[in-house]
């Protein structure tokens, strides 16, 4: 403290001897700045401004200091002095208008903005300042018009984006926001952020197909952005574009060779496009990259289990399903799938029944769970029980061909051939093309229960 006081005294005495020495003022300014002494900092700035030729930088600093100290009258006086020395620069008049807005003198601000817009109609800084004024005074339509103009101006991109959104929320109604985005895109089509904003808009609008176009463009502009890549994968998955997902994930396996999620999506895409051996290979490779993430690991096991089913390696499929049961006892998508596979193979029917019942206990309104449960009961030759369950989720208005066919099988097992034929035909009419279904329909009178 004493050292600082001594230094101040030394510089003060030196300034008295040499009032034009800019460096001495700057040394004192640094001391007061470090001490956060706004009062003395403002005073030394004023002395510097008085004794040295007018300097914009000093004047602006002094203006800012007085604003921080809420000395708006003095701030206005300084700003008017700056305007006198910079009569050809509209920024400072706009700054004065903003000062009036902050002091709730909107009428003065309005007059200044009218003058500025007449004199500088194409100045982006003036229009930007005026836009903020319009927003503050609830001139909604005027605000929108000015922001639209600014989208094509020379403002830096981040400033334009900040006009459009606050945080993650648009500053405009949906229809106007889209028009502004399109205007921004005209001038910045190759900016990642602009393409991402478009994608976000269409995701919120539940138009994922359109969102995909912009995310894909964003990835072309920056193929190292992993977060964008995951959005691209998720959108492709949600839209069922598995051929595209397969091609994209194949490409990015080489760019992100240590990211297990790229392997997972590649495995999913391979599975969905019936490349089952490829799916198994890539999923087994990617699984080794997973570190302490059971939620991700069970996804690998699930698609491995389904892929092994497709190549009729039931033993490995069951092993994967069993690992899922250990890692995540609430992964009901996998649990119900395991139950259905066991029932169809007539293997461990009791377990299939228990797994389906566990899923129903979690969600009593899911028809898939009742289908799996009735299938396990049917395959376990509990025909009357399976009929009671099946009747809970299937009727003549149902469209699911699997449900309809199974219900027909169950009715046949109960000796109701006429009703069974009706449901088999419903399954056929709703699009089922299974050869076994046609066989049952054509041979209903001589069909044996063992043939179902």
TL;DR of this structure?
The chain is mainly α. It has helices spanning 2-17, 22-35, 38-51, 56-68, 72-85, 91-102, 106-119, 124-136, 140-151, 157-164, 174-187, 192-204, 208-221, 226-238, 242-255, 260-272, 276-287, 294-310, 314-327, 332-345, 349-362, 367-379, 383-390, 401-413, 417-429, 435-442, and strands spanning 165-166, 169-170.
Structural commentary:
This protein has 452 residues and is mainly α. Helix content is 75%, strand content 1%. The protein is built from 26 helices and 2 strands. It has helices spanning 2-17, 22-35, 38-51, 56-68, 72-85, 91-102, 106-119, 124-136, 140-151, 157-164, 174-187, 192-204, 208-221, 226-238, 242-255, 260-272, 276-287, 294-310, 314-327, 332-345, 349-362, 367-379, 383-390, 401-413, 417-429, 435-442, and strands at 165-166, 169-170. Strands 1-2 form a two-stranded antiparallel sheet. β1 and β2 (169-170) form a beta hairpin. α11 packs antiparallel against α12. The longest helix has 17 residues, at 294-310. The radius of gyration is 36 Å and the shape is elongated. The N and C termini lie far apart (96 Å). 33% of the residues are buried.
Which key terms come to mind for this protein?
452 residues; mainly alpha; two-stranded antiparallel ribbon; 26 helices
Distance between the termini: 96 Å
- Give me the side-by-side strand order of the main sheet: 1-2
Instruction: Please bin the fraction of helical residues.
Output: over 70%
Tell me, rounded to a whole number, the average pLDDT: 91
Q: What is the string of helix and strand elements? A: HHHHHHHHHHEEHHHHHHHHHHHHHHHH
Low-confidence parts, pLDDT < 50 over ≥5 residues?
none
Oligomer kind:
single chain
Residue fraction in strands: under 5%
The structural class is mainly alpha
Query: How many strands in all?
Result: 2
């Amino acid at each position: 403290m004493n050292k600082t006081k001594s230094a101040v005294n030394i510089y003060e005495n030196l300034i008295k001897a040499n009032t034009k020495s800019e460096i001495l003022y700057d040394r004192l300014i640094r001391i007061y700045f470090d001490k956060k002494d706004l009062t003395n900092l403002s005073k030394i700035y004023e002395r510097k401004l008085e004794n040295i030729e007018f300097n914009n930088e000093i004047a602006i600093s002094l203006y800012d200091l007085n604003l921080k100290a809420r000395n708006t009258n003095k701030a206005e006086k300084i700003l008017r002095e700056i305007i006198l020395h910079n009569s050809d620069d509209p920024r400072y008049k706009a700054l004065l208008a903003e000062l009036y807005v902050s002091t709730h003198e909107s009428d003065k601000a309005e007059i200044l903005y009218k003058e500025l817009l007449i004199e500088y109609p194409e100045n982006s800084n003036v229009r930007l300042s005026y836009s903020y004024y319009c927003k503050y005074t609830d001139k909604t339509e005027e605000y929108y018009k000015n922001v639209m103009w600014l989208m094509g101006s020379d403002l830096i991109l981040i400033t334009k984006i900040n006009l459009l959104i606050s945080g993650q929320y648009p500053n405009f109604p949906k229809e106007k926001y889209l028009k502004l985005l399109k205007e921004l895109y005209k001038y910045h089509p190759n900016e990642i952020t602009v393409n991402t904003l478009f994608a976000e808009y269409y995701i919120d609008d539940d138009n994922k197909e359109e969102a995909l176009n912009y995310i894909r463009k964003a990835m072309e502009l920056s193929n190292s952005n992993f977060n964008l890549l995951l959005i691209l994968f998720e959108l492709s998955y949600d839209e069922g574009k598995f051929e595209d997902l397969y091609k994209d994930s194949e490409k990015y396996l080489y760019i992100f060779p240590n990211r297990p999620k790229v392997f997972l999506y590649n495995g999913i895409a391979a599975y969905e496009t019936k490349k089952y051996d490829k799916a198994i290979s890539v999923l087994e490779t990617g699984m080794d990259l997973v570190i302490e993430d059971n939620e991700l690991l069970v996804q690998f096991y699930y698609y491995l289990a389904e892929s092994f089913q497709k190549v009729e390696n039931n033993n490995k499929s069951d092993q994967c399903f069993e690992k899922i049961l250990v890692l995540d006892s609430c992964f009901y998508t996998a649990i119900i799938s395991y139950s259905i596979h066991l029932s169809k193979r007539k293997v461990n029917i009791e377990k299939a029944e228990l797994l389906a019942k566990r899923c129903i206990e979690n969600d009593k309104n899911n028809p898939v769970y009742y289908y799996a449960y009735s299938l396990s009961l049917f395959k376990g030759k509990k025909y009357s029980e399976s009929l009671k369950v099946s009747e809970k989720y299937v009727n003549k208005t149902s469209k699911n061909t699997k449900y309809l066919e199974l219900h027909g099988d169950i009715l046949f097992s109960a000796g109701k051939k006429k009703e069974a034929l009706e449901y088999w035909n419903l399954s056929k009419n709703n699009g089922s093309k299974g050869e076994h279904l046609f066989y049952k329909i054509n041979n209903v009178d001589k069909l044996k229960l063992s043939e179902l």
